[in-house]
Amino acid sequence: MAKVGVVLAGCGVKDGSEIHEAVFTLYSLAKAGVETVIAAPDMDLDEIDHVAGEPTGNSSNVLIESARIARGEIRPLSGLAPNEIDALILPGGFGAAKHLCDFALKGASAEPHGEIASLIKSLHAAGKPIGAMCIAPVILAAVFRDEDITPELTIGNCPDTAATIEAMDAVHVDCAVDEIVIDTKHKLVTTPAYMLAGTIAELPTGIDKLVAAVLRLAEV
User: Fold this and answer.
1) What gap in Å lies between CA 12 and CA 14, rounded to an integer?
2) pLDDT band at 57 (very low <50, low <70, confident <90, very high)
3) Can you tell me the mean pLDDT for 18-32?
4) pLDDT score of 46
């Protein structure tokens, strides 16, 4: 049975992983008969009130918050070894741009979290595919910028974000919400998800296509 890693960055679009994207990813993998290994960095996050959209002044733990989505079946990102998974998928949400990298703060100068950078580099070196959705493709851009690799990615069609991605030495490809961009050379698959989706009903098609393409590239 194929085994796919899913890395989360908290629980909630404004300070963690986008819950709908994460759940549809896990559902699509389950439908494909794939075993999932869910992980998240063990680090603190600044909590955002999802009603008011403002900081609460409290902090939470990314791993503990991500466990809400994983129903407790989760491990620290530091404990996810590249040789135990066939592929990796990164849902979006503000946490992806804040905890898995610092794109939310630094834009084109963003650096990836050390543990996710190490995992992505090892998987790429082993020829294993990686999928990313919504804003999460910026993590790939940040990782590969220092590897002399020019990935083809999409976040949809937002001109400002696309320009920032290209400033990170990646190639941005405009893409509809229900489509994907496949960089076959580097085995990367990306889709816009909530960067373009107006409703939850617009999410599953693109995510299902991403999961299917990642599994094809994994040859499992």
Assistant:
1) 6
2) confident
3) 98
4) 84
Q: In this predicted model, what pLDDT tens digit does every residue of 187-200 receive, in sequence order?
A: 999 999 999 999 99
Q: Determine the 3-state secondary structure of 33 from DSSP.
A: coil
Find the angle CA(119)-CA(125)-CA(131) to the nearest 5 degrees: 60
Q: Are 77 and 40 within 8 A, CB to CB? A: yes
Helices (H) and strands (E) in the chain, counts: 7, 11
The reply to whether 175 belongs to the active site is: no
Number of domains in the chain: 1
212 closest CA partner among 17, 23, 25, 10:
25
Looking only at the bridges linking them, the beta strands covering 188-191 and 181-183 are antiparallel
CB proximity list for 63: less than 8 A, separation 6 or greater: 40, 41, 42, 43, 74, 76, 77
Determine if residue 193 is left, alpha or beta; phi over 0 gives left, psi from -120 to 50 gives alpha, anything else beta.
left
CA distance 174 to 179: 10
Q: In sequence order, which residues have a C-beta less than 8 Å from that of residue 139 and are 6 or more positions away?
A: 90, 96, 97, 100, 101, 103, 112, 116, 120, 132
Rounded to the nearest integer, the mean pLDDT of the chain is 96
Domain housing 108? 3-218
Q: Is 187 left (phi over 0), alpha (psi -120 to 50) or beta?
A: left
Residue 87 belongs to a domain with what CATH number? 3.40.50.880
- Decide: residue 158, CB within 10 A, 0-12 exposed, 13-18 middle, 19+ buried: middle
Q: Exactly one of 11, 101, 134, 175 is catalytic; which is it?
A: 134
